[in-house]
Specification:
This is FAD-binding PCMH-type domain-containing protein. It contains 15 helices and 18 strands. It is an alpha+beta fold. A seven-stranded antiparallel sheet has the order 15-12-14-13-17-18-16. A five-stranded antiparallel sheet has the order 5-6-10-8-9. The chain has a four-stranded mixed sheet with strand order 1-2-4-3. The longest helix is centred in the C-terminal third of the chain and has 18 residues. Bound molecules: flavin-adenine dinucleotide and 2-acetamido-2-deoxy-beta-D-glucopyranose (NAG) (6 copies).
């Protein structure tokens, strides 16, 4: 029944919604004509729910600016409402922003730097998770959070997990679109590597699954960052096996405790450890009784028991001096609590990972780099000097392991084989303190500049999920320009950028899905002929649902 409706709806949309209308009101009328009761899912500024919805899940309070708010927020309850929204905004010149978890560092899921009116498609109602343990797969609605996904898996099995990020409140819609990595990355790769299928509403309002969208588009939506190719409604993922017990430790070292030498050693050890062990680094300023020092935290998760971890550490990294008393065992689900600094797996109730408001909401700026050759020991002193100026944070996440089994072009995420680690710079400040904000931003820029010689270059790498508009952006409203866009595009996607641009030209030549860092449509010379002559495939009935137990979102 659902499937039949989708087909009729799409056909209907294209016959009726072709009527040209001009205003936001016409957009509402257009939607209303498809769904007489859509008003219950559509909010304007007079609605008391508008503001809470607009601000919900904004993890970076830097962008809490009502003047940048949309004209409407739509919270679709079905894929067909999304199809209608695309069709109606196409015919009325209204722009769309897509918001799943709202954790974009630059707020691009809910704000726009242009003055054009826009509508937020808020995916929060499409967040069912359907776990099929027997077949080791799950379908997850794009509006679900990482925590909701992890919780749903853990409810069904104590020996399955999924290799996505560490923070529970992040949305799967945005995160899987840009790659996604966390505690299981060295064993299982990116979240995007473990996506088996997806459902997307494209610029023509068609609902496509993997078979319908084709392998090129399916490649692009797993790493190119969210929102360039369409609206993902759900992902089908491959569950991975985890042992019933995991072990965590955090070992803090001050500079006076030989931290620099240990960090230096870590650079070559961490990416080569057994795949079931991740040791990441958090470096920050410690200000104890007015005495400033840099604190390096070795923060780890091992997929196994404490005793096995101890023998690996004694063999591979004895200088860290890990003791059994530093280690805590817990099931995989509880490891989500570590994100908030929990030492053990029972410091918060597990249900807290379902909380869509993050405990660590704050005002911040982030940047990222990738490292392929160890940073020279002599360079660390300069980093520590900078740390004494502002309270910044650096996070080093080791790759290697499974990540080395992928080439640069397997997915749009290019930092694979031979990449030692990802590095993230963060700086937080009080929301209302403009001066502090300016100093913080200047500080992170200084740090970023200082690091230039020590990180990947030509192009310098960056992770699209740690969105950074300093790298460059598309012209507002203007025609996209490949040479301008490649300045930031190649940082995120390396040699995949060109392919992404020509693919974009094929599937969204009018650049309907455009924003500050969307992939611009560029027809490559060789492709021009095919682009001009080949029409998009006709609208036809969707295939039957991919598996028996999945019956579509209705
Ligand atoms: C506190 C915190 C912790 C993080 N930890 C990790 C981590 O451990 N590992 C990691 O890899 N990353 C991590 N990230 C980065 C995170 O993966 C990205 O910010 C991600 O894009 C957020 O996804 P979202 O759905 O919450 O964001 P949103 O702000 O909703 O979306 C991000 C982008 O994707 C687009 N988009 C959203 N939903 C869809 C959709 N359904 N279809 C198409 N486009 C869509 C948006 O328009 C926007 O451009 C973290 C971020 C934060 C703030
Ligand atoms: C719309 O209204 C009809 C009739 O009242 C109802 O059956 C249906 O469930 C409503 N749909 C939604 C999405 O609220
Ligand atoms: C806002 O929504 C309310 C309730 O749906 C409606 O009555 C009102 O006309 C809308 N206002 C505008 C300016 O669109
Ligand atoms: C500091 O650490 C390095 C590398 O782990 C080690 O070789 C050295 O002996 C340590 N020095 C001290 C004083 O602990
Ligand atoms: C894991 O979480 C559950 C549910 O909150 C809790 O009861 C249990 O004590 C935790 N286990 C460990 C080992 O921390
Ligand atoms: C969710 O977390 C926020 C921030 O820590 C807190 O204020 C709120 O009470 C929590 N909500 C629930 C339902 O636990
Ligand atoms: C990874 O790099 C190594 C060394 O350059 C090379 O031998 C290997 O074939 C590469 N593997 C993949 C999957 O690209």
């Amino acid at each position: 029944m659902v499937w039949f409706n989708v087909v009729t709806l799409v056909v209907y949309l294209f016959s009726v919604c072709a009527v040209k209308a001009q205003s936001n009101e016409d957009f509402v009328q257009c939607l209303f004509s498809k769904f007489p009761n859509i008003t219950t899912h559509l909010y304007n500024k007079t609605s008391s729910e508008f503001r809470p919805l607009y601000q919900s899940m904004q993890q970076n309070t830097r962008w809490l600016d009502d003047s940048a708010a949309p004209v409407f927020i739509l919270t679709p309850f079905s894929e067909s409402e999304i199809q209608a929204a695309v069709a109606c905004s196409q015919s009325n010149g209204v722009k769309l922003r897509i918001k799943s978890g709202g954790h974009d560092y630059e707020g691009l899921s809910f704000r726009s730097s242009t003055s054009s009116p826009f509508v937020i498609i808020d995916m929060s109602q499409l967040r069912d998770v359907r776990v099929d343990v027997a077949n080791e797969v799950a379908w997850v609605g794009a509006g679900a959070t990482i925590g909701e996904l992890y919780y749903a898996i853990a409810k069904e099995s104590s020996v399955h997990g999924f290799p996505a990020g560490t923070a529970p409140s992040v949305g799967v819609g945005g995160q899987f679109s840009g790659g996604g990595f966390g505690w299981l990355v060295r064993k299982y790769g990116l979240a995007a590597d473990n996506v088996l299928d997806a459902r997307i509403v494209d610029a023509s309002g068609r609902l496509l699954d993997r078979g319908k969208m084709g392998e090129d588009l399916f490649w692009a939506i797993r790493g190119a960052g969210g929102g360039s190719f369409g609206i993902i409604t759900s992902w089908k993922i491959k569950l991975v096996q985890v042992p019933p017990i995991m072990t965590t430790f955090t070992k803090h070292k001050l500079l006076t405790e030989n931290a620099t030498a240990l960090l230096d050693e870590w650079q070559t050890i961490a990416p080569k450890l057994p795949n079931n062990l991740v040791i990441r680094i958090l470096a920050r300023l410690q200000n104890k009784n007015g005495e400033k020092s840099v604190k390096i935290s070795f923060n780890s998760l091992f997929q196994g028991a404490k005793s096995d971890l101890m023998s690996i550490m004694n063999e591979k990294f004895p200088s860290l001096g890990l003791m059994e008393s530093d280690c805590f065992e817990m099931p995989w689900a509880n490891t989500s609590l570590l994100y908030w600094g929990a030492k053990q797996g029972n410091e918060y109730p597990l249900e807290d990972i379902l909380n869509r408001t993050d405990r660590l909401v704050g005002t911040y700026k982030g940047k990222s780099d990738f490292v392929r050759t160890p940073i020279p020991t002599s360079a660390f002193q300069g980093i520590w000097n900078l740390f004494t100026e502002e309270s910044g944070l650096m996070i080093f996440e080791p790759f290697g392991g499974k990540m080395d089994e992928f080439s640069e072009t397997d997915l749009p995420f290019p930092y694979r084989n031979g990449t030692l680690y990802n590095m993230q710079y963060l700086v937080h400040w009080q929301n209302n303190d403009q001066e502090q904000g300016q100093r913080s931003v200047e500080w992170i820029n200084k740090m970023y500049k200082y690091m230039t010689p020590f990180v990947t270059s030509n192009p310098r790498g960056a992770y699209v999920n740690y969105r950074d508009l300093d790298l460059g952006m598309n012209q507002p409203q203007g025609k996209s320009n490949y040479d301008e866009a490649k300045v930031w595009g190649e940082k995120y996607f390396g040699n995949n950028f060109k392919k992404l641009c020509s693919l974009k030209h094929r599937v969204d030549p009018q650049d309907f899905f455009s924003y500050e860092q969307s992939i611009p449509p560029v027809s490559s010379e060789s492709e021009q002929a095919t682009v001009m002559t080949s029409k998009l495939p006709p609208i036809e009935a969707m295939r039957a649902p991919p598996t028996k137990w999945y019956s579509g979102w209705s």
